[in-house]
# Entry
Amino acid sequence: MEGRFMKVDVKDTASKAKGLAGEFKEFISRGNVVDMAVGIIVGSAFTSIVNSLVKDIITPFIAWIIGDTDFTSMALTLVPASGEEPGIAIAYGNFIQQVMNFLIIAFVVFLMVKVMNQFRRKKEAEPAPAPEPPKPAPELEVLREIRDILEKNAEK
# Structure
C-alpha cells in the first residue's frame, strides 16, 4: 500500500507558495498592469460617452433621414402571435443598431488614434533645445582669473 501514496515535501510546497506570491507581487507592481487598469477604466468611461453620442445624436439624425426613431423595434415577423402563443420574428433592427454602434465606436477610436499620432509626430519633429554648456569647475575659473591678471601685468 505504501507505493500508492505520493510523498509530499512540505518545505518544497512552502517555497513554491512563496515563489508564487512573490511572482504575483512582482506582476502587480509592474507598470504595464497599472497602465492596463487605467486603460480599462478610461475605456469604460469612453464607452459611455460614445454610447451617448450614438444614442442621443447620431441615431436620431439617421432616424430623421430614414423616418424611424427606433431601430431595435424593426423585425421581420415569420409567425404572428396568436392568443398566448408568442410570435416568431427576426429582430434585424437590433442587429443594425449594434453594427451601427460598432462602426461609430471604431470610427471615433480611429480619429482619436489619428489625432494622438499627429501630436506625437509634431512632438518628434520639434528640435530639442540646445543643451547649455556645462558650467566650468571653480578651480578652472580661478585659473582663468590668474591668467587674465598675468596678461594684464605683461601688457604693462
About this structure: The beta strands are 76-79, 88-90. The mean pLDDT is 78. The CA atoms of residues 87 and 101 lie 27 Å apart.
